[in-house]
User: What shape does this take?
Amino acid sequence: MATATAPVSTSVPPSTATAPDGGLRLVGVTKRFGAFTAVDDLDLTVPQGSFFALLGPSGCGKTTTLRMVAGLEQPTTGQLLLGNVDITGTRPYRRPVNTVFQSYALFPHLDVFENVAFGLRRRRSSSVRKDVEEVLELVQLSSLAKRKPGQLSGGQQQRVALARAIVNKPEVLLLDEPLGALDLKLRRQMQIELKRIQTEVGLTFVHVTHDQEEAMTMADTIAVMNGGRIEQLGAPAELYERPATTFAANFLGQSNLLEATVTGTEGEDLLLDVRGHRVVLGRSRSAVNQGRLWLGVRPEKLRVTTAGAAGNCLDGVVTDASFTGVATHYLVRMPWGQELTVVQQNDGSAPLRPGQQVTVTWTSDHGFGLDASQDAHAGEERVLPLPDTEPAS
Amino acid sequence: MTALLDEPVQSTSGPDEARTAGAKRSTPYLLLLPGGVWLLLFFLAPIVVLVSQSLQTGSLEQGYVLTWHWGTYVDVLDTYHVQLVRSLLYAAVATTLALIIAYPLSYAIAFKSGRWKNVLLVLVIAPFFTSFLIRTLAWQTILSSDGPLTHALRQLHVLSLLRGLHLIDNDQLLGTRLSVVTGLTYNFLPFMTLPLYASLERIDGRLHEAASDLYASPWTGFRKVTVPLSMPGVVAGTLLTFIPATGDYINAQLLGSPRTTMIGQVVAGQFLRVLDYPTAAALSVVLMATIVLLVAAYVRRAGTEELL
Amino acid sequence: MTAVLQAPPTSAPATGRRRRSPLAWVREHLILLIAGLAFVYMLLPNAVVVLFSFNRPAGRFNYTWQHFSFDAWLHPCAAPGMCTALGLSLKIGVLATLLSTTLGTLAAFALARHRFRGRSATNLLIFLPMATPEVVMGSSLLTLFVNLRFPLGATTILIAHVMFDISFVIVTVKARIAGLDPRLEQAAMDLYANERQTFFRVTFPLVAPGIAAGALLAFALSFDDYIITNFNASASSVTFPMYVYGAASKGTPVQINVIGTVMFMVALLAVGIGQLSARRRTQ
Assistant: This one.
């Protein structure tokens, strides 16, 4: 079983038979390809009208899940419910679900108008022209209605694919990494566009992506998937500030994970020993209350200073300073070899240079505590092998 | 929203899936049935009949009996091995020449033709669609002893050179192994050009740039990058040329002489004039077996390419 | 202190360009020269065919140029038996194309879209006719018909033509189907098209150019076939290639060249249109 873990949950326990708001529900869905399990006993509820993101690295099963909802794959076991209706065995053309494909899959032999009208025509709608024109307005492509897909740019094709799906007003709109092929600026624009359209039209969007920034920008709720299961489910801010697993901590943004042991408590706080240093962590921010744990701190929550500091402090040496415009990324090496990542907004103060002795500091309500038995490198996207100075996992 | 759909959304999961799965299993066989049956009846079965015919004895008047008479094969090989070897030789030479001519041709069309690429392709393909008999007859005109080409070559003493090389026998171009091979090469040039072109066209131009960036001269780049990548086309082209060329007899008949008789002529003669069916069938089988063996050896050496 | 990059020694002299010898020009354009010669080689007979269609020969054979004349063009059916042969070739060609394209397209879908037992054996069976010499195919069919005591004639010719056309149609159509993005059909089903609608509205229109190409190829192969036809014909069923072959020994009327020229023009037109429409579709 893989229901969402503790901190926040909007999933409904499997025993509830009805979802009164007509949303999408996956109950115990498993998909196996021969010996390989792509999706493992998934339970999920997507509330109607929400923007829901399935986030995870490639191979985690998110696209397979999406395809099962669309009807393009059949689950090995489990049920799919839309509203109260079991659609598990229904053919894709009978489901009120539409997909925006990763490669757009626009029909090359039809022009933009006919592409968008395709679903309406199959359902013998009586207001084809009006609906198509309306939705082309919405995606700002009215002037290109007569063009063929081959004559459009990537961004335009993406909008046609979106229009083609939205015009049918499906109960659930599925988006399979639709922005992957676009360049950065265009992608940012489209993220905002998609969110605007979703709120304007009021459809339920299920968005599959491996880009965590994209998920956090657009979604109301994110489900972080790994190895066919859901690691954590919740609103972007909660997932980011209170990750429940090392995977979530590393996959969503970056985390510094420090080995720590609980030495005592002080009011609402836990007292921790981090490599001989005294560190304070709010008790409600830790999943573990005694023994060993991983203390996680986000890079932007750390401050680097050459002057002294109060609160949690660790001394180290700057080994790298990268200027990115908005901020500066520092790598600070600790006496025990671990390098902490610090992201400091460029507020005009003088940048630090490699070789400088500095103090890294953060407050007790900015860390989070995770189970020590989890792999500290889960969820990291590593291309090069780990250097010897990383903490043992 | 569900009211917008024609058909009800609600359904049971079982029968829907099972029905389509069942239909799917027999579909390929049904689709293949008419075409497959035709090929089995009119391609495979005749070959079986051919082999069987080659082992029969008798005559048209008395009828044929299957006597497993392998002696026919011995006679056939004994009598006609010259023509068989000659056919293989002519086909090999024609294939080689076709490759030498077609490679630069395809290369030029694929890489150096720019705006004219489609025009050039049309000019390569279009002759293929016009009667090859008429075109071969045109070669008779071109190579005829009274024609301007022969006159010119005689003046330039090229004819004596060709005679020295044993490509022609006396003072004319027609009726010689030169004319037969010229015709063969000409007729099968499109079969060599098109697969080569398709294979060259697929090569990403940036690979040449990468090679040149890594200090390769154009010639080295060609040798080390282009040639290996074009091998599938070369294999396909040589097979599509060599196999039909071996059995061809139109070129030999129209452009050759009794001294250039190819095996195809013998087979046709035996079947249509002499009416000695067992001999003719045995000849046919020998031809086919030779080709199959050669092709198998060639494909194995060239690597197992998926020709389809 | 900046490092100066040493350029690796090149073989082409930087300043030698100004003194371009004719030899260098030849080397640079060698490929184009050879290609040009190859084109001459390929098109010379066609040119001769066109030219000699305007000839008025002295004797029965049309090998030497005598006299410019429009005679043959004005009286294309003057040669006895030629137009009948032409008609038979056209009839058989159209029928063979229809049959082989239908059978071949069905088979191509089976091979390209489905995995089933015997697939590789079927692929081999389809490949064999393309790899077998015409002499063998023609003669084996003849033995079959003789042994079955089936009368030779237009029917046997048609059967033979369909036989070797099927393979070519299958290969052509299969290539087109294989190039079709399967996600397009998934998108159609996602957009409420059932299997039948998906096929007719998405799959078939996109495969149609391949089917057309296969049909064109089938017609051309059928119309132009001599060897297999000759083995399976009778005295009363003379096709155009058979007529031409017979004429080679008896007497070549100029009308043959007229037909040859017309065929060439039609071929240029058909292939040209095919290329243009292919290019327009990808734009």
